[in-house]
Design the sequence.
């Protein structure tokens, strides 16, 4: 019985193969998605960030040598550009940007917030710019921001803090150099060999490129929702009031622009839209090829539009201000994002069958 | 119908007795011991090498408990490592038949202890290993071709009662058969779900990848998989079909092992099913190992005394055991609703790889002091695996709610309510609410009773 059954199975298998060509083909070329991501999203964004940080480095070197209103303004301007371009790379914390040894991922190492002003001041006082410590909240992008913008300080007041202690400029410069070096390292790795490795590892198991890419995409989405909105809004259990000073880019006041840029990049990844604006192969296209995908696309797009609307309704001011003055409007962004979570989190990965943990499943 | 006469019953009884207690060669039992020792050794070693002791037992902030086994404690890191080294050591003992009783008891305790610590890591095959380890404690698998037999030739036995081998065969048939009938459902057979998701996900594999893109392949695999599981255990019983059935097992488990992230289970099943083979086969099998382990060669010169068997006690034990393993997996029938959705009576029933399911669970905690409700970030407490499992299984959702209450009360809150918005997608259906999101989860306790707060699966 088993023999004949197998025989039937084998015959079925081969007979169906021929005539099935015109039937629904569930194939999706994951390598194409990965290629689009590597060539049109990740690498160009890393290039951008790399040139932005070089420009910042240059501006800060000039400022450190001669702190004046003009050199400060340039440095501040360059910082803002870098912070905005950072929103297009904050979600690729795998491969060369992944955790390694004692080092956390690139985004955690380079762009942790909120920073701890006291710690920064203490390192400056101690003349310690070695960064031989785990205080990621005392260095990186947002430590540089704190030093450049100060807390509600005029340019003159900022300059005065640098004139008072010459090591402040050294700390600022060292922070920028470290950031630059971190970015460079990742950008180099992508350019030399990682992009090839990334595109060729086209499976769906844990450790496959799609799994890494998806997991970090999701983490970035959750980060936007929880850290850029949830905590500053005071939405965690036990939080009795908002923490407006916990928004991203609190000192420069560009939290709204950054959040919008971040959200735009999340959408770009889902759609597969490159940095050049061309809509290529993304998760959306992947969903088009799988069972139940079409329904999920509709649901996802509908909720994305709701999030877009909530963003559009935000008053044009820093989120820290908006949280105090227009709480409900900011809260609405979080609420809509919360509603959206399942479409990215469980529905997407389940429909396309991406492994999200290392543990063994139930065998058969 | 006339009742059977006492004499007829006597005959029946002796038939049963013959089936259970007939003296048979010990060879299959010894071979099984060797295989079980080896596979558990590999499994334990793999667990250690993958760093899973840390991942499961050291780095976790919360453990989900098994119903009725809440008392099983998680121990400090060093102790958990010690348990795993003991497992390794005892599996070697089982393999060699050395200090066999101590080895099997040690292995059973260490293994089962580790399994009972965190429900999110529940796997049917871990349950299988626990069950077999339990049986092995009682089976005379060290009475020949073993260190114990070599050391103490007087205890050597060449024959054992048939039930000591048949119970293992029973257990294997149970696994396949229940796995098979669980596949007889609409999603599996008519929608070819979840294989319609899982196979295209492996379209990059060489040779077979192209086939996986075809929808028909998912149907074929679904039906073949179902028929395989239902029948293969029985086909192993007959000498005419045995080798073919086993070859199917090899192909089937190699394929699933290759395709899916299912650990050592394929190896365990492929080799365990060798127990069905003939004495002749096992003779050669053991001979192979005796090339490396000299005392496996030891043959007692004197005919060993017969093993004493307490027939009625053994019969009772077997009745209870067999009855339990036939009935317990069926308990899901006592619950209303789709058990793939509710998971009531789902575990410990050999329902393996039956669906693709995932959830997003958002918990809200209310502080009675301020009457303010906060949103929980699950990643503060759970690792990715724990969150994935919790977000679709109602009993874990309850446990997590209780955990959150305790946790936030240590932070100075007075938690009056924990509710959860849980959206679950089952076999590519649009995600829908698993439970009523307004319900205060603190009002419920897990029990055998049906969970009325689970919303029914729609379409």
Sequence:
């Amino acid at each position: 019985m088993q023999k004949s059954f197998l025989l039937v199975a084998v015959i079925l298998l081969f007979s169906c193969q021929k005539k099935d060509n015109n039937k629904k083909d569930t194939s999706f070329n994951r390598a194409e998605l990965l290629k689009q991501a590597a060539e049109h999203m990740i690498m160009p964004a890393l290039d951008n960030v790399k040139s932005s940080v070089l420009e910042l480095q240059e501006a800060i070197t000039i400022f450190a040598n001669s702190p004046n209103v003009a050199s400060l303004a340039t440095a501040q301007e360059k910082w803002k550009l870098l912070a905005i371009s950072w929103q297009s790379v904050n979600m690729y914390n795998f491969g060369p940007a992944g955790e390694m040894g004692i080092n956390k991922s690139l985004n955690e190492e380079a762009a942790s917030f909120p920073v701890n002003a006291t710690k920064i001041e203490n390192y400056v006082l101690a003349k310690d710019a070695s960064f031989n410590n785990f205080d990621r909240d005392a260095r990186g992008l947002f430590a540089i921001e704190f030093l450049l913008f100060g807390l509600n300080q005029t340019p003159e007041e900022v300059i005065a803090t640098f004139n008072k202690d010459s090591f402040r400029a050294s700390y600022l410069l060292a922070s920028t150099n470290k950031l630059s070096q971190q970015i460079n390292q990742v950008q180099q790795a992508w350019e030399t060999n990682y992009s090839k490795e990334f595109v060729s590892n086209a499976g769906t198991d844990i450790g496959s490129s799609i799994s890494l890419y998806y997991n970090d995409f999701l983490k970035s989405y959750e980060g936007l929702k929880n850290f850029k909105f949830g905590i500053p809004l005071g939405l965690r259990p036990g939080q009795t009031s908002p923490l407006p000073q916990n928004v991203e880019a609190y000192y420069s006041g560009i939290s709204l622009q950054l959040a919008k840029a971040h959200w735009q990049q999340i959408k770009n990844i889902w759609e597969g839209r490159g940095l050049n604006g061309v809509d290529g192969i993304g998760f959306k296209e992947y969903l088009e090829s799988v069972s139940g995908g079409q329904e999920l696309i509709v649901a996802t797009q509908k909720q994305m539009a709701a999030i877009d609307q909530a963003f559009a309704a935000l008053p044009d001011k820093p989120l820290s201000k908006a949280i105090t003055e227009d709480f409900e409007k900011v809260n609405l962004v979080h609420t809509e994002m919360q509603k959206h979570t399942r479409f990215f989190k469980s529905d997407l990965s389940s429909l396309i069958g991406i492994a999200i943990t290392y543990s063994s499943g139930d065998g058969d | 119908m006339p009742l059977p006469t006492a004499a007829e019953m006597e005959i029946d009884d002796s038939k049963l007795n013959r089936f259970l207690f007939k003296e048979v060669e010990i060879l299959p039992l010894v071979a099984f011991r060797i295989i079980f020792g080896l596979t558990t050794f590999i499994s334990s070693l793999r667990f250690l090498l993958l760093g899973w002791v840390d991942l499961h037992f050291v780095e976790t902030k919360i453990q989900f408990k098994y119903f009725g086994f809440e008392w099983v404690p998680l121990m400090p890191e060093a102790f958990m490592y010690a348990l795993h080294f003991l497992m390794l050591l005892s599996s070697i003992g089982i393999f060699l038949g050395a200090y066999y009783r101590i080895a099997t008891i040690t292995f059973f305790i260490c293994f089962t202890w580790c399994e009972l610590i965190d429900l999110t890591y529940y796997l049917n095959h871990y349950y299988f290993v626990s069950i077999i380890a339990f049986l092995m404690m009682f089976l005379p698998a060290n009475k020949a071709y073993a260190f114990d037999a070599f050391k103490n030739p007087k205890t050597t036995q060449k024959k054992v009662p048939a039930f000591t081998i048949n119970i293992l065969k029973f257990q294997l048939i149970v696994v396949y058969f229940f796995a098979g009938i669980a596949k007889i459902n609409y999603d599996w057979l008519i929608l070819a779900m979840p294989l319609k998701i899982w196979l295209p996900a492996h379209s990059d594999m060489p040779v077979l990848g192209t086939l996986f893109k075809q929808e028909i392949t998912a149907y074929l695999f679904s039906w073949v998989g179902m028929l395989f599981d239902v029948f293969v255990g029985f086909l192993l019983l007959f000498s005419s079909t045995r080798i073919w059935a086993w070859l199917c097992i090899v192909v089937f488990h190699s394929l699933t092992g290759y395709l899916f992230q299912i650990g050592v289970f394929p190896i365990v099943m492929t080799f365990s099913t060798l127990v069905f083979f003939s004495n002749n086969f096992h003779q050669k099998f053991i001979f192979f190992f005796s090339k490396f382990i000299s005392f496996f060669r030891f043959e007692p010169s004197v005919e060993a005394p017969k093993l004493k068997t307490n027939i009625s006690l053994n019969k009772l034990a077997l009745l209870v055991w067999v009855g339990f393993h036939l009935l317990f997996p069926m308990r899901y029938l006592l619950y209303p609703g789709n058990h793939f959705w509710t998971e009531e009576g789902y575990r410990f029933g050999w329902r393996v790889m039956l669906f693709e399911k995932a959830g997003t669970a958002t918990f809200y905690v209310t502080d009675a002091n301020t009457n303010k409700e906060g949103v929980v970030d699950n990643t503060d407490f759970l690792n990715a695996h724990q969150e994935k499992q919790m977000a679709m299984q109602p009993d874990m959702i309850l446990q997590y709610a209780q955990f959150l209450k305790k946790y936030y009360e240590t932070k100075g809150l007075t938690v009056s309510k924990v509710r959860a918005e849980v959206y679950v997608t089952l076999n590519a259906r649009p995600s829908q609410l698993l439970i009523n999101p307004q319900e205060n989860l603190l009002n419920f306790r897990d029990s055998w009773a049906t969970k009325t707060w689970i919303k029914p699966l729609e379409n």
User: Anything to note?
Assistant: The longest strand of chain B covers residues 415-426. Chain B has a mean pLDDT of 92. DSSP finds 19 helices and six strands in chain B.
